[in-house]
Amino acid sequence: MDNKQTLIANLYSFSVAAKFLSFTLAAEELCLTQGAVSQRIKKLEQELGFKLFVRLTRKLELTEEGKRILGVLNTSLDTVFSEIEDIRFNELRGELYIGIAPTFAHLWLMPRLASFQSRYPNLNVKIRVKASKLDFQNQPVDLAIYYGDATHADFYHQRLFDETLVPVCTPQYARSLNLNTGDKQLSEACFLHCTESLEFLSPQAEWQTWLKETNRKIDVMSKKYVFNHEELTMLAAKNSMGIAMGRYQLIKPYLDSGELIAPLETVDSGLGYDLICPKGHEVRPRFNAFSLWINEQLRVC
User: Fold this and answer.
1) 254 C-beta neighbours (distance < 10 Å), count
2) Is the pLDDT of residue 78 over 90?
3) What's the distance, CA 30 to chain centroid?
């Protein structure tokens, strides 16, 4: 390789090492040895004339100069290499990295994902499950699906579907409170709260939305269990531990099976699931392939 090609290769190796703050993990990502990565960084530092990392006993830290270089690379080099890969493989090979909320992944995406695999058998998919939104600059994700209010400044986003809030419990729990004859005993219930993807709101946010929309005044925090995972909340409900505030689009299978019932009113949550990517990336064939597929799935739901 000539000097420019070597510099580009070494800069890319640095960006990967900086992402993991580990030469070992960078080597795994780059399919190189740890020694080869270390040597690339050393040569890059020699050519630049300043240190990029502080090498501590058990970890790496970026120098101030390293942070500045990484800031530029995060917005340029990844795009360059991604674009090269897109052109070379027509976007239907290589890797698609998806960031996604846990329960959406578990209950909605996974039962359908085999059809995407069948359509694009040469496309490798990596899924990162995380309740809070991923940082596209520091996580190499191509697209993400998250629950929120459709506010995504500086990102392309598409609303997949709005969500409805529905209190659910087992038939046995409903009978124990006589909910089938009205909700006079509702205040005696144990309320199950879910905070998944709502870290910016209070734990009782979804129940408070429901109370406001149904014009009720009940203390939903006097007897409570709080979970940061929707599926755990539903598991508690299925074990007759209380009444859970469910997100209808995700928990519909439990209602269809009769494991859970909805003895009370449903209301709009004001939130929904959005497909998100950095602006400009929505025109890439790999993103379009996934977007087209998921919209087809929504039409047959």
Assistant:
1) 20
2) no
3) 24
Average pLDDT, the chain: 87
Q: Element (H or E) spanning 74, and its range?
A: helix 64-89
3-state secondary structure of 153: coil
Compute the distance between CA of residue 33 and CA of residue 36 in angstroms, rounded to an integer: 5
pTM: 0.66
Taking every pair of C-alpha atoms in the chain, what is the biggest distance, in angstroms? 80
Burial class (CB in 10 A: 0-12, 13-18, 19+), 240: middle
Strands 143-148 and 95-100: parallel
User: Looking up tokens 């080099």, which residue turns up?
Assistant: 77
**CA–CA dist 286, 291 (Å, integer):** 9
Long-range Cβ contact pairs of 79-86 (< 8 A, separation 24 or more): 81/12, 86/284, 86/285, 86/286
Strand, coil or helix: what is 167? strand
- Residue-wise pLDDT tens digits, 13-28: 998 999 889 999 999 8
What is d(CA 124, CA 102) in angstroms, rounded to the nearest whole number? 20
pLDDT above 80: residue 298? yes
Q: Which two tokens stand for residue 230?
A: 């929707």
Q: Helix %, strand %, coil % for the chain, to 5?
A: 45, 20, 30
In 3D, which of 2, 70, 65, 59 has the Cα closest to residue 25?
Answer: 59
